[in-house]
Amino acid sequence: MRLDDLDPSRNTRDLGRGSGGGFRSGFRGGGGGLGILFQFLPLLLRSKFGWVIIVIGVAAYFLFSGGLQCSSAPVDQASSGTAGETAASSGNEACDTEAELFACRVLTSTEQTWGQIFRQQGRQYAAPTLNFYEGRNSSGCGAADARMGPFYCPADSGIYLDTSFFREMETQMQAGGDFAYAYVIAHEVGHHIQYLTGTANDVRRRQQRASQTEGNQLQVRMELQADCYAGVWAARNRDRIEPGDIEEGMRAANAIGDDTLQRQAQGYVVEDSFTHGSSEQRMRWLRRGLKSGDPAACDTFSARSL
C-alpha cells in the first residue's frame, strides 16, 4: 500500500514500556508460562485478538517449557491531525520506527477519509489518538496489555497498539503484509466512528438488558461493522492499493474469525460464544465496505443475515 507521500499523523503518542514488562519475555523463557496466560484469560477472551494470543501462548508453552462502559468526549481536531497530543511527558517520540511510521501514515489516511465523510454529512470529525506502547502500559479504560492485541478505548478516544503484533500476524497467523496491518488500524478507527455516531453506547445499553448469548451477538455486529468501515476506508483510497493488498486483508480477516481461532485453540467451535464473527463473516463485511465505499452499507444491526 502506497502511503509514503503522507505525513505521519500528529495525533500520536509513544508511551514506551510500562512498569509491568511484556508477555513476550515470559513466553520466550522469562518465566510465567501458562500461569500468566490463564491469569489473563478473562481479559483475553474479551479482547479483539484474545483467541489468537491463547493459541500462541499454549503453543509457546509446549515449545519452550518441555465492550467497556466508557463515555467518549473527544476534542474536535482538524481531519489532517494537526492538534494531537505529543509524547513529551513520556520521553518517547512516536512514529520513530518503521512500523510506527507506517501506522502513523495509516492514521493520517483515516483522518483524511473520515474527515471528508463527516464534512459531507455536515459534521466535524474528531480524530482518535494512536498510542504506541511495549508490553504493558495503561489506558483510559485500564491496563493496556499486548496480550489483548490492538484495541480502542472510548474513554480517551485512544487506539492502543504494540507494533510487535504485526510480527505475530506474519509469523503466527500467516497473515502479514502492509495492507493487513493497515486493516487492523482501520478496524480500530471503525470502533471510534461507532462511538462518535452513538452506535457503541446504544449497543452497550442493549447488552446490559440482554442475555450473554444475545450480548455476544450484538458484539459480533459491532465488530463486523468495524470491519466494514475498514473496507470503506480502503475503498476511498483505491489509488494507494497495490496488487495483492486486498488478498492480504482477506487473509487477515480470515485468520481472526472466531471459528478459525476456536478450532485452533480447542479443536471445536461454539457459535454462541462468538464475539467477533466467523472468518466468512469478517471477510464478507470487509469486502462489502470495499465494494461500496459507503458507511451506510455497513448497517450490520439491520441486516437479517450476517
Give a verbal description of the structure.
The structure is a single chain. The protein has 306 residues and is of the alpha/beta class. The chain has helices at residues 23-30, 33-39, 41-46, 50-64, 98-120, 164-171, 178-197, 199-208, 212-235, 245-255, 258-266, 279-292; strands at residues 12-17, 129-134, 136-139, 142-145, 151-153, 158-161. A four-stranded mixed sheet has the order 1-2-6-5, covered by helices on one side. A two-stranded antiparallel sheet has the order 3-4. Strand 3 (136-139) and strand 4 form a beta hairpin. The longest helix has 24 residues, at 212-235. The chain is globular, with a radius of gyration of 18 Å. It starts with 11 loop residues before the first strand and ends in a 14-residue tail after the last helix. Mean pLDDT is 82; it is low at 20-46 and 53-90.
The rough form would be described as globular
Structural class: alpha/beta
Helix content: 40-55%
What string gives the helices and strands in order? EHHHHHEEEEEHHHHHHH
Helical stretch tally: 12
Report low-confidence residues grouped into runs of 5 or more: 20-46, 53-90
Widest sheet, order of strands: 1-2-6-5
Beta fraction: 5-15%
Total strand segments: 6
* Biggest beta-sheet profile: 4 strands, mixed
Measured between the Cα atoms of the first and last residue, the distance is: 29 Å
Mean pLDDT: 82
Evaluate the radius of gyration: 18 Å
